Every structure is written in C-alpha cells, then in structure tokens.
Amino acid sequence: AVFQPNFRGSSGYGEAFERAGYGGFGSRMIDDIIEGAHHVQESGRVRPDQYCVIGGSYGGYAALMTALRDPGNVACALSFAGVTDPFAFLGSRDNRHTSLRYWEQYMGERFGDRDEQETITPAARADELRLPLLIMHGEDDTTVPYGQFRLLRNAMEGRDNVRFVTVPDADHYLGTPEARTTLLRESQTFLDENFPAH
Questions:
Q1: Tell me: the pLDDT tens digits for 47-91?
Q2: Are the C-beta atoms of 52 and 77 separated by less than 8 Å?
Q3: Distance, CA of 171 to CA of 81 (rounded, Å)
Q4: How far is it, in rounded angstroms, from Cα 116 to Cα 81?
C-alpha cells in the first residue's frame, strides 16, 4: 500500500490550508505525514509495525525528517533530490529570486535561530539517521543543487547504513529515460532489501 499525503501547506486546497504550513517547515508539515501513516497502520489494512518513507525534492527532505521525527516506526527512507540543509539552500539563492519569500514563510521564526535551525536540518542531525537510507541526486540539478547531496554525504562518510547514488547527467525532473531507469532500479533494489512486500 502507498499512502501519499497532502500535508498542510500543500497547494490546491485553498489559501487557509496552504497558510497552515507557514512556520511548519520540518515540523508540523512532517507531523501530518507521520500521523497519516499511523492512521493507515491502525486501520488494519497494512503491516502494523513499521513503514518506509520515500520522496523527491521537498518530499526527499520530508522523508529524512520523517525518519528523524518517527525513528521507532520508520523502517527505511529514500530521498531523491532532497534538501539536506534548508539554510545552506537558502544561502545559495539570489535575494531577488521569487522563491525566497516562499521559503521564508514556511520556515517562519526558525529562520534566525541557529539551534532551532538544526532541529529541521537533516545534515546537522546525520548522527541520528541510523536506519537504512538511499540518497540519490541528479548531477545536473539546478533546482536543489547537487551540493545538498554532498553535505549529507560528507556528514555520513563511512557509515554502512546509507547508499549515496549520483545520477549522471540528470536534472531535478529526471528528464531522460536513463535517469528514470536508474531511480527505479535503485529504489526497487533498496526496497527489496529493506522493506520487501509480504
């Protein structure tokens, strides 16, 4: 079974629903994913013990944060093109970039407090990520720069619970058949090893 939540802050559900995510980046938005997963587990329709979390872009970031916020229930996590340090990501943006205001709204008051920043920064909390991980990133990604991949890889160097995969000549949107094939092949192998279907 696949649970694909539209957590608060998602577009398409009206302005109030979108604004409910402001200030909830890495916290309330992630809690919606966790609570939804627990609800599905409690329904009896899926295995009751653990789940694997998978996502790309913000979803890749959310996969890592879900693993950090619900470690007892997450069996494994897969992140493609995920943000691993939101504040380094923001620092790489041009101040005139239209997305900067969007990010500031979602991060809210955390934007200025370094201790609070670390609570929503997977690269700063890499030591806590002990579950099986697959981290993939397109080499030519300009939406979430490849440097975000390198930050987490450097923080987890030498760890045997994580596989880092660079997808050659791939952008953020997996624009080639080769990039999509790599993502699917690596994902299937990872899930077969760490969260096989019963």
A1: 888 999 999 999 999 999 999 999 999 999 999 999 999 988 887
A2: yes
A3: 9
A4: 23
Sign of CA dihedral 29, 97, 121, 113: negative
| Joined tokens for residue 168 | 């050659």
List the strands of the sheet with 133-138, edge to edge: 51-56, 74-80, 133-138, 162-167
| Distances, alpha carbon 127 to alpha carbons 119, 144, 158, 164, in Å | 13, 23, 12, 16
Beta partners for residue 79, in sequence order = 55, 135
* Residues in the chain where the model's pLDDT stays below 70: 92-101, 109-112
Burial-class residue 15 by CB neighbours within 10 Å (0-12, 13-18, 19+). exposed
Residue that is written with structure tokens 């913000």 in the block: 58
As a whole number of Å, the CA-based R_g of the chain is: 16
Q: Which two structure tokens, joined as six digits, stand for 6? A: 């539209």
**Using an 8 Å Cβ cutoff, are 56 and 80 in contact?**
yes
Residues 187 and 93: their CA atoms lie apart, in Å, by 30
The single-letter DSSP state of residue 65 is H
Tell me the CA distances in angstroms from 171 to 21, 74, 84, 176, one per residue in order.
Answer: 27, 28, 17, 9
Question: 3-state class of 76 per DSSP?
Answer: strand
Instruction: Specify the pLDDT at position 198.
Output: 74
Q: Do 172 and 141 touch, CB atoms closer than 8 A? A: yes
